[in-house]
Amino acid sequence: MSAIITKPRLTTSAMIASIAGEGQRTVNAPFGHALIAEAARRPNIVGMTADLSKYTDLHIFANEHPNRFFQMGMAEQLLMGAAGGMAKEGLMPFATTYAVFATRRAYDFIHQVIAEEHLNVKICAALPGLTTGYGPSHQATEDIAMMRGIPGLTIVDPCDALDTQQAVAAIAAHDGPVYMRLLRGKVPLVLDEYDYKFELGKAKLLRDGKDVLIISSGIMTMRALEAMHALADGSAEVAVLHVPTIKPLDEATIIAQCSHPGRLVVVAENHSIVGGLGEAVATTLMRAGVHPAFRQIALPDEFLAAGALPTLHDRYGISTSSIVATIKRWLA
Amino acid sequence: MTFTNKNPATTEALHIRLARHAYRIRRFALRMGEVQGQGYIGQALGLADVLAVAYCHAMNIRPDDPEWEGRDRFLLSHGHYAIALYAALLEAGVLKEEELETYGFDDSRLPMSGMASYTPGMEMSGGSLGQGLTIAVGMALGLRHKNNPAFVYNSMSDGELDEGATWEGALSASHHKLSNLIVLVDINRQQADGSSHDTLNFEPLSDKWLAFGWHVQRINGNDINAVIAAFDIARALKDPVPRVILVDTLMGKGVPFLETREKSHFIRVEEGEWKEAIAMLDASQPPSRTDLAPDLYTTGDRS
């Protein structure tokens, strides 16, 4: 076996690789700062974490409000159970950990303690989908599929720093349990150029176009906008519908946008092709009797590889260049 | 925090009164069992003395206002013990006696497994075992955060000691010095697949809780005086540590043919046996209020 490597390699490097592109505008820790702003208005907000405050930007809140921060240790079942207990006492916990641990490890506690009693807990979970190169232990590729099955749980998947900041205020104003996918660290700033405002439960058309409609959530909206610009070279006019609230789904807007004749519908998500936004949109359209040409850009139903994020995003088809190539192939 | 059982005469009166409450809790449970033809009656009879002391002596509650902010919270982590807690809530006056007839039927407020949104005084939806202590930790932290001096009780079964989350909660309560948290572990040594010793042995149990940093008492949970003393000690303790009372109980306590029936997690009671069980319980009942001089019955604490 020849293991001699002659070229510089991309490496996994860090557990949390930045999703920001080269030279992209970013905002530092938008979640932590937004939570401080919201906590100033709402004295019942508390922060809780399972040994990951520094990696979910909750440490910023903890530094500002040490008496309103609760370290629960590396015990996610406890985190969710105790967050439920806090909510029973009228407090509004923002509970943070990684998405894999919140969902896969503590599922029954979210289901039974928090959701069954419709408690006012905001679960903010970092490393959603494929945003780390650490392999399946850290890649939450099925978190939305799992969370969608829980009745009454609101699911939010913000795109960028602006979306995250506005979503924090919106989910705090919402009375009930929320699962929010969390972008942390230096988070790209994109949506300020699109006259956008986050509204819980609303999908927003960021750009219109006659050939293709990309329906997307989370960081895939950022990629969809980049793909839209790339395809504007005469290849296709692309509309982008951002769906930051996965549940409850803005079915009316989705049905209306998918009813334009002749427009290819592409759902793009940073999630397994099983059980996420794509399937949610597909069933919505089937039930409504709307049958556009329909495609999905999503992660495969596999345990994904470890490696550098750019490599993995190319390999699994969710990088901008992959999306552009895929859509061109579909249009050909 | 005040206690009224300091002098021996009052202690005797308290004992008599609580024994009577325990008898009535057992009787309510048997009547619900008869209504439905089933229920975890072995556990209810076993835990009746503990519930009598909790609801009719130790806990600060307002029966007509089950969500009163100042109340002591009681979490029933083992949701299948619902029949026992309903009986205690009936005895405490939170539930009315006529509701007993609805136990386990469709649209009843008294489902077979405890659910918070169904029943006044039911603080959690139990049944997914091992969750109660984690909720209790959050409530105890929340109460302290609000400067509310109420206690949180978490009642759990010995089978729940198998669940890892129980020990996450135990570690956390100690770390956070939750002196407003009192855990009750019902040790009846039975779980679904057989004896707890053969299923997943948890002994030596006192040592485990001690090692986790808790104040530990292990008592005979069917000895009313021991139960009263344990609750009083747990409440009065000044140490900044959470408290656990490990109660060894006898399933079926109070009904001789159920006490000696072959032990299992779910004790079967045949159709004709409910009336017989109630009759046996009645035959050995403690003296009632009318049998006693008023000054011996009134202890000065709640109810």
UniProtKB/TrEMBL annotation, chain A:
GO MF term set: transketolase activity
Cofactor dependence: thiamine diphosphate
Superkingdom of origin organism: Bacteria
EC code: 2.2.1.1
Name of the top EC class for this enzyme: transferase
Keywords, in A-Z order: Thiamine pyrophosphate, Transferase
Start and end residues of each Transketolase-like pyrimidine-binding domain: 25-189
Family: Belongs to the transketolase family.
UniProt-recorded name of the protein: Transketolase
Source species: Glaciimonas immobilis
TrEMBL record, chain B:
Keyword Transferase: yes
Record bears the keyword Transferase: yes
A Pfam family of this chain: Transketolase_N
Cofactor(s) it depends on: thiamine diphosphate
GO molecular function: transketolase activity
Domain Transketolase N-terminal, first and last residues per copy: 24-274
Record-linked SUPFAM superfamilies: Thiamin diphosphate-binding fold (THDP-binding)
Signal peptide bounds: none
EC number(s) from the headed UniProt entry: 2.2.1.1
InterPro entries found in the cross-reference section: THDP-binding, Transketolase_N
Sorted UniProt keywords: Thiamine pyrophosphate, Transferase
Protein family membership: Belongs to the transketolase family.
Protein name: Transketolase
Species this protein is from: Glaciimonas immobilis
